[in-house]
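Recall the central idea of this unit: under ordinary conditions, the amino acid sequence of a chain determines the structure it adopts. In this exercise we apply that idea directly, starting from the sequence alone.
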Amino acid sequence: MAEEVDALAENSGGVVSLPSYTVTAWHFPEDVLGVPADVQRIERAQIEASTATSVPDLLQNEANIFFRSSSGRVSDGEVSMRGFGENSGLRNLVLVNGQPMNPSDMGGIDWEQVPLDSIESVEVLHGGQNVLYGDRALAGVIKIETRQAAGTHLELKGDVGSYGYHRESMNACMMTDKWGVRAGGSWMSEDGYRDHAETWSRNANAGAEYYFESGDRIDFFISGGKIHNQFPGPLIYDDYRSDPRSSSNLGEDEATEESGRATVQLQGDRSWGNYEFSIGYDYSDTDWGFSGIYGENEQTGWTMRPRVQLGEHGHRLIMGTDVVYDTLDFHQYLDESHDYERSKADVEEGRVSPYIFAEQALTDQLTLSGGARYEWTRFEVNNDTYVANQIEPFIETNRGTFPNPNYKNPADLDPDQSYSETVNEHGGAVEISLNYRFSEKLSASFALNDIGTIHWEESNNKLYWQSP
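Accordingly, the structure predicted from this sequence is:
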């Protein structure tokens, strides 16, 4: 792509007319002007030409997406799209090869899990995409696809920067007639702009693709790593004026996370249309400490996403089902060594989400599209919180340390804060859009979409929809 643009610029006196490109906003390849949505796609050549060192850097520079971070590091920032403000990260879906990066405990995304060296493309869908993508796609979707093998080569890179930043990485790939194999790894460390904002990460990944005689393709990807972050805390105004790099914490607020993910994707073309089938698994184990409270979060996630496209542009039907199963085990402690447990909880979430989406050309230039999604979700939650004055065997006072007369092992459960519950929820999303294509270089669109909860009133056998 870069060579083509350079040649165009040279032959046209510096005026370049970029070729149209395809996106996968509707899961299957489509001309960007044919999609009634604001879509931006960043290819590998653009990633290599950028000065970005992380996915947030790339998205800020190339896709005009804003990130917020109290540490001064963009790499652990919260993405903010469509003006949702605080906690906007909970309303943006981030996918890596179709597998969500969003933690099931609603925590932030650690972008160092996906080094730029391992990425083939990033596609950003602005605005609500709940019909085709489901939960958390209210503000937008960020779709990351990992690199494929291209020839046979070995690549070594190193970067250094301010505030103690350095990164080293290695990537290698090999191609045969039917197989492509790639592996890579990265090491990063940074002191951070603010005090007590140190971070480091280690990551390794590998991928392979196989091409069948029929033209179908299957892709494999696996990655794992470990990340450590210190959190300097929110800025205090008076301290900021005297020292903008100051920390409101003392270096004890930090988290260390071990994580991994694996995906398998199968896709192909047929006379009747296209199909895709993907399965994915991810896990993370995070030890953390904030303001004298310590804890551990263990998360796992499974997904299965089959989908088909019947017909072709202007006359097509897209159908699919997303199946998701997440687990979360949470433990909270009163001490850094995890000897005195304050509470524990486990959550299981299962979700089944069928959807249907259709497109119909009304004229050569005007296209109507729309669809609907139904979501059924089941939560099983167990929370045990222990009576606070029974947990520790000793009491510290200004006169010394004494045995705790209320100490019990195990401590009693606090009935006001302990519970077990199963919740079933039904929801959905609907969308309708019009797209008018003026030319090969210009189109305009109008879209309406809504999400809500489906309720059933047994008293009068009435089914109704409630928007938030």
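Helices lie at 2-11, 44-49, 55-63, 130-133, 237-242.
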